UniProtKB/TrEMBL annotation:
Name of the protein in question: Methionyl-tRNA formyltransferase
Organism: Pelomicrobium methylotrophicum
GO molecular function, one term: methionyl-tRNA formyltransferase activity
Keyword Isomerase: no
Reported function: Attaches a formyl group to the free amino group of methionyl-tRNA(fMet). The formyl group appears to play a dual role in the initiator identity of N-formylmethionyl-tRNA by promoting its recognition by IF2 and preventing the misappropriation of this tRNA by the elongation apparatus.
PROSITE patterns associated with the record: GART (PS00373)
Entry's family note: Belongs to the Fmt family.
Record flagged with keyword rRNA-binding: no
Length: 309
């Protein structure tokens, strides 16, 4: 197939790399305009732009697709399909109607569960036992199009949003090549999404990152994992802001919510509404991520100290 590819972050770059290794041809790449990044906030290319430039693919970075010139360029490319992966821009009807086989989205959830921008952290936070990839024919709704292919993936007890992202990126790359091959051979038929079980995965709000120590230890563990590597679960102690990066529930211990129960080489154990949480890696404002034992050498905490204050 002759393809146009639209994507921006690393998740999308993994899919683009798989398409470049396949028998299909990518004729044009769309990605978001360069955004400020790093301490200097200098405009930086997206992972998809870097890969496209490396292999010499034609590239467009429009601020919007509601532009007659962009639409004309896409039409002149005559794509059989437009593959979309975490692009970040809405596709208007005019663009959706250009490709012969439509616009195919690589979505990191088992639709209709977790439509929207943040399906990976939402699945972890909700305590889902599995997630997966859905290859979907896009329409004008938010992740509401008919499904072409789904593959399931278990969520392991230690998975963070980062580790699950990498697993799903690899699975999504495999699935889109499989779906294109099967679609071209006439082996796939779109299946409308059921509305039963549909739910929305909004972007993570900063207010959600604050640990409520009155919650049970299992939930707080999921919150820490869901917000690793971005934006990080947050708390404070003695007026100092902290980010928590790795933890594990300790159901056998009990204590007042937010109270330090133990602080030693095995970690920092904090009471929760039910059970306790052993913090294994954390970071103070302006500092580095550190194992708890190393953190405590420079910032001593003792039983009875309270987090969340």
């Amino acid at each position: 197939m002759n393809l146009v590819f639209a994507g921006t972050p690393e998740f999308a770059a993994t899919a683009l790399a798989a398409l470049l290794r396949s028998r299909h041809r990518v004729s044009l790449v769309l990605t978001q305009p360069d955004r400020p990044a790093g301490r200097g906030l200098r405009p930086a290319p997206s992972p998809v732009k870097r890969l496209a430039a490396e292999v010499g693919l034609p590239l467009l970075q429009p601020a919007t697709l509601r532009d007659a010139g962009v639409e004309r360029t896409l039409a002149e490319t005559s794509p059989d399909a437009l593959v979309v992966a975490a692009y970040g821009l809405l596709l208007p009807r005019g663009v959706l109607e250009i490709p012969r086989w439509g616009c195919l989205n690589i979505h990191a959830s088992l639709l209709p569960r977790w439509r929207g921008a943040a399906p990976i952290p939402r699945a972890i936070l909700a305590g889902d036992q599995e997630t997966g990839i859905t290859i979907m024919q896009m329409d004008e709704g938010l992740d509401t199009g008919a499904m072409l292919l789904q593959r399931r993936l278990p969520i392991e007890s230690g998975d963070t949003a980062g580790t699950l992202h990498d697993k799903l990126a690899a699975l999504g790359a495999q699935c889109i090549v499989e779906a294109l091959d099967a679609l071209e051979a006439g082996r796939l038929r779109p299946i409308p999404q059921p509305e039963a079980g549909a739910c929305y995965a909004p972007k993570i709000d900063k207010a959600e990152t604050a640990v409520d120590w009155a919650r049970d230890a299992a939930f707080i563990d999921r919150l820490v994992r869901a917000f690793n590597p971005q934006p990080g679960a947050t708390t404070s102690v003695r007026g100092t802001a902290l980010k928590l990066w790795r933890a594990q529930p300790v159901e056998a211990e009990r204590g007042a919510p937010g109270s330090v129960l133990r602080a030693d080489a095995q970690g920092l154990v904090v009471g929760c509404g039910s059970g306790a949480l052993r913090i294994l890696e954390l970071q103070r404002a302006g500092g580095r991520r550190l194992p708890a034992a190393e953190f405590l050498k420079g910032f001593p905490l003792r039983p009875g100290d309270r987090l969340g204050t």
